[in-house]
Amino acid sequence: MTQVPIADGLLTLEPGPPRMLASRCPRCDALAFPVQSGCARCGSVGLETIGLSPHGTVWTWTSQEFAPKSPPYAGPETAEAFTPYYVGFVEVADGLCVEARLAGFGARKPRIGERVTLVVLPFRTDEAGNEVVIPAFTPNDLAAPEPQGETSA
Amino acid sequence: MPDVAIIGVGLHPFGRFPGKSAIEMGADAVRLALKDAGIEWRDVQFAFGGSYEADNPDAVVNQLGLTGIPFTDVYNGCATAASALSLAARAITSGEHEIGVAVGMDKHKPGAFAADPVDYSLPSWYGEVGFFLTPKFFAMKIQRYMHDHGISPQTLAKVAAKAYRNGSLNPGAFRRTPLAEDAILKSRMVNDPLTQYMFCSPDEGAAAVILCRADIAARFTRHPVYLLASEVRTRRYGAFEVHSPYFPVERAPAPTVDVSRAAYERSGVSPQDVDVIQLQDTDAGAEVIHMAENGFCADGDQERLLAEGATEIGGRLPVNTDGGLIANGEPIGASGLRQVHELVLQLRGAAGDRQVPGTPRVGYAQLYGAPGTAGVSIIST
After folding, report:
1. Structural domain of residue B347, as residue ranges?
2. What is the mean pLDDT of residues A16-36?
3. Domain residues of chain A, as ranges?
4. Could you say which of A41, A95, A112 has the minimum Cβ distance to residue B147?
5. Which of A4, A24, A61, A62 to mutate to test the interface with B (most CBs of B within 10 A)?
6. CATH classification at residue B217
7. Of the four listed, A108, B33, B307, B367, which is most buried by Cβ atoms within 10 Å?
8. What does the pLDDT read at residue A142?
């Protein structure tokens, strides 16, 4: 099944490991995530898109223990079948903290300061049969994450 | 002499009122404020009305009297009421008017607020994946704050227990049943570390404040309360904010810090001068953080201050004496004017069972919320 990011300007799946995308201002170097049209610091337009480091540390986290209202939530499950998940801000080497799901922690909670790596999570299947994926960070102390997808095949 | 006085306050209780519209609640709040000031609607020269759910707060005039005055509707996220008050004060200090009203009203459905992220300059995916929620932001902010500054879950429970205890003394509160710290800690986890009873709920209600030029306040009351500052600020690049998917490691202060400094500067008041405090307690963690962001303590001191009971009604830093948002809920348009209503009662010595002892002279109210907007008002006898 082909994997596709849930939206443009958020995530690139190739080449190499997945990376989250950000905007860099050519005038003041300010970063913004995800990709946006105007600089959040100086208002410049014509921002460049960069791929962020897939490695980082957990800056903060929480658990989402109730089903978000739908819309806008577009997860495949019903409110009754909703499974709580972790979400957090991860500080990546580029000097930015970005918000993403935190996954693969098993029975334990995430820890502030622990090292994590970007993976993608299947979220739903689109009309064309593609697997729609979202970014998530997974702890480095687990076994190496499984290879993500066959998109380059 | 200060420029602006508060001569009347009115509050429609906060809670659930089936069959009663936000507009009707707003009209009731204005009537109560008019009665408190001893004036009639026809004496009012202008108004600012705030609401999230009511498209047209101006519709209160249909029930109060169609007098043709300028009436401006305001919506500014969780700082809506602070914006209405701030604009009303400036309509007086500009010399345009002498007497006006700031009124706020709302009627929310139960549950966390829902909206379209695109209207917040956010991509659709942010809502699709379940990120467009305010409770998880507050949880992540206090999670990091507890880690950095040694705040315990027990302290969060103490904040919430105080809110319910103070709410039980307030006939206008939504939640008036005291809750033990243990029951708060053991209630359903919503967003770690925040449990169900550590959060406020969106609800219904209205509040109104009548302002006049300070030099004519003596016509209406022998005990005016002066509005020394009413400021609003938005987030700067680098702040860690609700509904923002990123922030740079090079942080900027929260908008509450900026607006607090601006209000202290305008009023000439310092944190040590404040006798009664109202803080945005969207959740118990927000109250803890806002104590420091507004200059009432250093980061981390809250653990000791809560253990000592410093923020109780009889403590040296009374915070949210009417139960705050946790016990009153949050009708967005009215919430900040409910804070001012409480401060005015406290400064008049008219707060009944929840009266702060002594003779409180200076009151401070802070709002914060989506989309990264904060307001601070400072009042004084």
Report:
1. 4-111+199-380
2. 95
3. 3-139
4. A112
5. A62
6. 3.40.47.10
7. B367
8. 67
CA dist B238 and B235 (Å) reads 8
pLDDT of residue A146 exceeding 70? no
Asked if residue B191 belongs to a domain, the reply is no
Of the partner residues A6, A87, A96, the one whose CB lies closest to the CB of residue B125: A6
The Cα B92–Cα B100 span in angstroms is: 8
Position B318, amino acid: P
Q: Does A78 touch chain B (CB under 8 A)?
A: no
Task: Write out the DSSP string of A45-99.
Answer: --PEEEEPPSEEEEEEEEEE-SPPPTTT---SS-STT---EEEEEEEETTTEEEE
Distance CA B165, CA B175 (A): 9
Residue A14 has what pLDDT?
Answer: 83
Q: Are the beta carbons of B240 and A91 separated by less than 8 Å? A: no
Compare all CA atoms of chain B with the CA of A123 and give the residue at the minimum distance: B129
Residue in B with minimal Cα distance to A122: B129
- Which tokens sit at B173? 């509160």
Q: Is 0.80 surpassed by the pTM of this model?
A: yes
pLDDT average, residue stretch A15-20? 91
Q: Which residue of chain A has the CA closest to B111?
A: A69
pLDDT-based confidence at A148, cuts 50/70/90? very low
Residues facing A49 on adjacent strands: A23
Domain count, chain B: 1
Residue A143: is its pLDDT beyond 80? no
Using CB atoms, pick whichever of A22, A60, A64 lies closest to residue B130.
A64
Position A51 pLDDT exceeds 80: yes
**Which of B82, B97, B110, B78 is CA-nearest to residue B4?**
B97
| pLDDT recorded at residue B1 | 67
**Residues in a beta bridge with A97:** A91, B247
In angstroms, what separates the C-alpha of A119 from chain B's closest C-alpha? 15
How far CA A86 is from CA of A63, A107, A122, A136, B139, in Å, comes to 4, 12, 15, 10, 12
Residues (pLDDT < 50) of chain B are none
Question: What is the complex's ipTM, to 2 decimals?
Answer: 0.94
Q: Would the CB atoms of B123 and A88 count as touching at under 8 Å? A: no
